[in-house]
Please model this.
Amino acid sequence: MLMTKNKKLITFKIPATSANIGSGFDSVGLALSLYNEIHIYENDNSKKIEFEIFGEGENEISKNDNMIYSAMKLVFKKLKSKPNKGYIIKCINRIPLSGGLGSSSAAIIGGLLSANYMLGNKLLVEKDILNMAVQMEGHPDNVAPAILGGIISGVVKKNEDFKYIKIKPPKNLKAVVSIPNFYLSTEKARNILPKEIKREDAIFNISRAALLTSALLSNRLDLLEVATEDKIHQDYRAKFIPNLKELFKETKKAGAYSTTISGAGSSILALVKNDKNIIEKVSKAMHSSFKKKNVESVIKVLNIPSKGVIII
Model:
């Protein structure tokens, strides 16, 4: 471990995200108040870029070739330049790996921001960095809310800037997240999806995704239950998440507005009223549903921050 003692230059706090929100597959996502931190220090002993990693993934993530550095190299290539001095990048990770809460997006954004800082902040965060992150991730529903905050509904068009609407998080809305103690890779969760879907299933999701954004914009939280219904990804991924259907049923009974798989899973997102009693009931329902299948889980009650990445 390097144990940084050099001068700190800048800090980036990058929020977790929850993507899809049921019907909004690959197009709707929201920010969550759980943050990875990247601290950049001067490296007095070397002209290299070195990594320190603490927290989630500290024993799994390479300190030489990782997603942060891959994103950094894209910035170096775009700006046709490299840093002329060394840096230490200290990562404090709180977002679980392969949990459906945007850990890869946080790494991509952290790398882009770090490299941009090292080269004099020539790229605009909410334009250039956003578009590069969307292109690198391949879909916008994780990286966009992590950068912009709030709830984002967006569309990726080839060779064009990312098109989106930012929805201000409705007042009195909380996110209860259940993080089970098993990983589910995005690749595995994507490979289970069918190559083609029925027309009626497409119409089912289109209608509900349209209602989802309208309900959030209008603060019609009573419509979230039907607006987050889905037929194109959650039923297929349910085979990887024990007791999922009962969990959905029990959280609804406990008072959640909606319950969905967070991203590709394995975490589960419940959107609830900011009411202590409801939050406790929903949390208990999520935990006990997994417990019935001998799966341990951690419950986090989070805000949906209106601001995305924080630069200190």
Q: What stands out?
A: The longest helix spans residues 199-217.
